[in-house]
Amino acid sequence: MSCETNEKAVSCKSGRKILIFQFFSYIYANKQPKTDMNNKTLPFLLLAVVLIFAIPSCKKADKQVPVPENQDYFPLQLGKYVIYNVDSTIWDDTNCVKVVRHYQMMWRVVDTFTDGQNRPSMRMEVSIRKKATDLWTLQYVMYATNTGQELELAYSDLRFIKMVYPIAQDRVWDGNAYINTNDADLTYFKGWNYRYINVGLPFGNGDVTYDNTVTVLAIDQTVNDPYPQPKDAAVRTFGEEVFAKGIGMVYREYYRWTYDPNSTSNMDINNKETRCLKGDGVVMRAVDHN
Predict the structure, then answer these.
(1) Residue 62 falls within a domain, yes or no?
(2) Torsion of CA 206, 209, 214, 216, to 10 degrees
(3) φ, ψ (nearest 5 deg) of residue 70
(4) Both 29 and 90 in a single domain?
(5) Helix locations, the chain, DSSP H
(6) Torsion, Cα of 6, 7, 12, 17 (10° steps)
(7) What is the extent of the structural domain holding 14?
(8) Is 206 left (phi over 0), alpha (psi -120 to 50) or beta?
(9) What does the pLDDT look like over 74-89, one tens digit per residue?
(10) Staple partner for 93: which of 101, 127, 257, 278, CB 3.0–4.6 Å?
(11) Helix (H) or strand (E) holding 33
């Protein structure tokens, strides 16, 4: 007899308690001289003792599914959330300005589902607010799938391989393998070699320091520099994310800008103020989580 579910465990424990109660009740009800006791009750007592100890211990079923080693840098339990302070940047080459916005963002795991490949997945809502006293406003939804070999995160019709397992220093993978880089609008995602660095090391994001983290360097690419080379086209792309054990992503820095020397905004190459860039970027720092 084994107790594998909560209902069975309750039944098992109750049965043992009843048997023990009957055992001692019988002794009390049959108090007799020693000789009578030996002759009339000893067989029953021996049988009761055997039955009591023959019933195995009843352990409550553990509802928690063990997290495989190295896979708890992006936990996906229902209700899990992380709140970030966000600095969002836009480089506007038409007006030759750099615009930075500040707000808060929350990632929250809200539901489970089975994806098109029959894999268990999680639905995550991304909400924003201007300041901590404002109400959250839903912006978009992400879908996370941990296959045991990789962690996939899908949003904006793109699917990224954010992590691969097991985690190891300098391990490299194609994090954009599921993105159609033949699409002219997505070509810049081609050739990104994600790499693990600083595995198991502490990390401070400016607001909080985390003891055990892993950094994923997705891209760090520079093609020319518009300041010393104003006559040449330039591109700068950088992407990095830091994950803390038991929490999830605690830092993200991403930016990509381009420089076109033939743009009307950049015709006067003798004036440094006319190195007008086009692109966007974001820095996210975790400030709260459960």
Answers:
(1) no
(2) -10
(3) 75, 0
(4) no
(5) 6-29, 34-40, 42-54
(6) 100
(7) 6-54
(8) left
(9) 999 999 999 999 999 9
(10) 278
(11) none
